[in-house]
Design brief:
4-stranded mixed beta sheet; 8 helices
Length: 215
């Protein structure tokens, strides 16, 4: 497994840039699969998380039908993407290499921006400077310029930092720095820590079914 490869130091031990987006699941989730009512959502959470359902409810709260969508998509995001990126960063720094973690939080301009947010793969056009010139605002151009700088520096040296760019600190487990890619990008700490610690516990208990009572 991937975990075993890293644990046995058989992975390609090189610096990495890795990260996820604030609204990963808006374009990856079939709308019909999202619970339409609070009652249905709570039943689903109870089924999936068992004895952890109450803790899940505190971390991904929904107190009305209108709040279900965001709670459901946020939980799915962390289970599918955000926790995995943190895990990869931790596995990388357990070797000799550095990991530069990001969280793309900038909402691209488009007619459905309020619905989609910072959707899956939205950062790619910024990294490659391939913006929609008819929609791009000045802040989009500035975010793109910064990301192109980080990625070019990383390709050259293995370190994304350089002149004129906000500092991007490499990940460490104590401070958990990451680059919040908004306008402007800035280093923050402890990305969604309570949520990701919960996901870690959930997956650990899922690997040992006897530790979780599924209602």
């Amino acid at each position: 497994s991937t975990r075993e490869i890293f644990a046995e130091k058989k992975h390609n031990d090189v610096p990495v840039i890795l990260g996820s987006n604030a609204n990963e699941m808006t374009t990856l989730t079939v709308p019909a699969t999202i619970p339409k009512s609070l009652t249905t959502y709570r039943k689903l959470v109870a089924t999936l998380f068992g004895d952890l359902a109450e803790e899940h409810a505190k971390l991904y709260p929904a107190n009305s039908d209108a709040e279900v969508r965001d709670a459901y998509l946020s939980s799915s995001r962390d289970l599918t993407f955000t926790w995995g990126m943190r895990t990869w960063a931790r596995a990388t720094i357990a070797g000799k290499s550095k990991a530069y973690l990001y969280y793309f939080n900038h909402v691209p301009p488009n007619p459905a921006s309020k619905l989609l947010g910072a959707y899956h793969a939205a950062e790619i056009v910024y990294v490659f400077g391939n913006l929609n010139q008819q929609r791009a605002l000045e802040e989009d151009k500035q975010v793109s310029k910064a990301l192109m700088g980080y990625w070019v520096n990383f390709a050259k040296t293995g370190n994304p930092n350089g002149k004129g760019l906000p500092e991007w600190k490499p990940y460490d487990k104590a401070n958990e720095p990451y680059l919040d890619i908004s306008s402007p990008p800035q280093t923050k700490n402890h990305l969604l820590k309570p949520q990701l610690d919960f996901v870690e516990k959930y997956y650990a208990m899922k690997a040992n079914p006897g530790a979780v009572s599924m209602r």
